[in-house]
Specification:
With 239 residues, the chain is mainly alpha-helical. It has one domain. Helix 2 runs antiparallel to helix 5, helix 7 packs antiparallel against helix 10 and helix 10 packs across helix 11. The radius of gyration is 18 Å and the shape is globular. 34% of the residues are buried.
């Protein structure tokens, strides 16, 4: 496997969408398997937010975001269609991306272990629901707070301050991390606001933002999911 080609190819939107498609399907199937009364509590916050926004624009909320994700997949496919005529999808790249994501998740865990509170709150005892929620966090939080927010903020910062590529991305990562942290305190099911937890989540947001900028949405989504599953295993094996 050519390392240079791997780093370049796997950073593309097409590889990201193909790589995250299993997570997306598992999450949606898991949501349908959960009782209707549990859905408001157990849908990932970013997922619920985007569905609510889509409802306001006339989309059917439960399926609108799922459809948007699949449309994004098709757009990524069509944008790289010409390239695919000469270059097929490399299965070994996808497998390597999985192991790379595990490595990043270990780094994130080692970073967060210095703090007394972990990123994912495992206080709810329903294991299946928590697994589904962890997968949803990986997909939808990374899509909203990394793909949408970092990309948008970088464009705005570059336009206003005329910053170069590096500095506008650094600024976008920091601002997106603050929004990411604050988001977890919003709504009826948000965490109780504390300064410590706010800054801890900012650190996590910076790490995940850096991974997104360096390696793309797919690796960032799996890193987030695997990290949350690490925390869930720690929680379930310690009670």
């Amino acid at each position: 496997m050519n390392a240079q080609n791997y780093w370049k190819e796997t950073h593309t939107p097409l590889y990201s969408f193909i790589f995250t498609l299993p997570l997306f399907l598992i999450y949606e199937i898991g949501v349908f398997a959960i009782s209707t009364s549990d859905l408001p509590l157990l849908r990932n916050g970013a997922d619920a937010l985007m569905r609510q926004i889509l409802e306001n624009f006339g989309f059917f909320g439960v399926y609108g975001f799922s459809g948007t994700f699949l449309i994004g997949f098709m757009v990524a496919f069509l944008r790289q269609k010409k390239k695919l005529m000469s270059t097929s999808i490399q299965g070994e790249y996808l497998i390597t991306m999985l192991f790379e994501s595990i490595g990043w998740a270990i780094i994130l865990t080692m970073t967060m272990i210095w703090f007394p509170i972990l990123l994912m709150n495992g206080k709810d005892g329903r294991l299946f629901q928590q697994i589904v929620l962890a997968i949803g966090a990986g997909i939808y939080e990374e899509f909203v707070f990394r793909v949408v927010l970092i990309s948008g903020l970088a464009t705005i910062l570059g336009f206003i301050f005329q910053w170069g590529e590096v500095w506008k991305k650094v600024g976008a990562i920091l601002l997106a991390a603050v929004v990411f942290s604050g988001f977890h305190f919003m709504g009826a099911y948000g965490d109780s606001p504390t300064i410590n937890l706010f800054f801890i989540r900012i650190v996590a947001g910076i790490v995940l933002g850096g991974i997104y900028v360096l390696r793309g949405f797919g690796v960032a989504a799996y890193t987030h999911t695997i990290y949350d599953l690490f925390v869930l295993v720690k929680y379930t094996t310690s009670i």
